[in-house]
Amino acid sequence: MSTISQQLSTTTLLRFATAGSVDDGKSTLVGRLLHDSKSVLTDQLEAVEHASRSRGQKTPDLALLTDGLRAEREQGITIDVAYRYFATPRRRFILADTPGHVQYTRNMVTGASTAELAVVLVDARNGVVEQTRRHAAVAALLRVPHVVLAVNKMDLVDYAEPVFAAIAEEFTAYAASLGVLEITAIPISALAGDNVVEPSAHMDWYGGPTVLEHLETVPVSHDLTGCHARFPVQYVIRPQTAEHPDYRGYAGQIAAGAFRVGEAVTVLPSGRTSTIAGIDALGESVDIAWAPQSVTVRLADDIDVSRGDLIAPADDAPAVTQDIEATVCHVADQPLVVGQRVLLKHTTRTVKAIVKDIPSRLTLDDLSPHPAPGQLVANDIGRVVVRTAEPLALDAYADSRRTGSFLLIDPADGTTLTAGMAGASFAAEAEAQAAADDAEWDF
User: pTM to 2 decimals?
Assistant: First the structure.
């Protein structure tokens, strides 16, 4: 094994997303990260330099490293989510560079849905704007554990500390009110490279980490074994061969937690119980398996289990329901309306459903709910009540991002309409937590 391979095998992986308003410099920041961390191939850099010269620019436009679509280059904006993979000796990264336009907020939902960290950019000249608040709300909605506020273009405000401090204070207060637990503010200039990879010589008043240093050191946990154990069945294996005449296994990827041979389990939504007779992983029998391993589970009893069923510990099974209340982000161009018939996809299960109610739409200016909007249009964040034709076993999204999320799909053409997160409103939960914190100080 080479030295690089050995390093990559021992480093952790961080999935993170970038977001911000139009022209805040997201793509430039990503390009600077890639360039200054020596993660750009020579031919890629030469292509960017050639494209920059053809546009009359004397220095390479690092934003072109991520704005790969022709329409993006022509308009100078980011349209689609651009995924980039790079690594340093300390950590590997999967980066989702998401668009800044309001009409592409839904793309941020896609990019941030699996992220452990979100970098929200703010132009130091403009401060916190509506789209900044929208991105903070999406990060809170998706339960992204860590948020970095990158106050960009500090070179255009003479690297003034009061400008940075005011923006950091306003954003932190707003994000905290949404329930974001950890916020790190960093003053940067993506164009000049200040505090992106190398510390800035122009901001000696700032003593915190650079963006890359924070990305390399922020604690992330991929250990899902401490979560509620959940195993969505993807496929039933019955070879019925002379060698395996009675073999019946249930294949899939463990969504969370760990399963052990001999453990009592419940199959949902039927509620039938059994014990795990065996677990097969990579062609071998094992005593224990954990998320996110792909395995085949064999049960001691010959019970009816099919694709879409959920296997969970008998003493820690989720509730089964046909009435789902959730916070959603509507991603389709066509609106979502009360009474609309949809398909609901949850893990490996897809069922028919109907939108019973749309109680509110979130007004991002002041976080107030707009009651009974009647419909949700593209990029709206709101609350919905859905009734399914068959029972589902969902966790609250606050407890599990994997088994608390779902999609609403157009049954006519398979278009994804809405991304949903089951359970209480994230803003309501933040208010409840704040009230609980205040109660601790009552004498």
Answer: 0.79
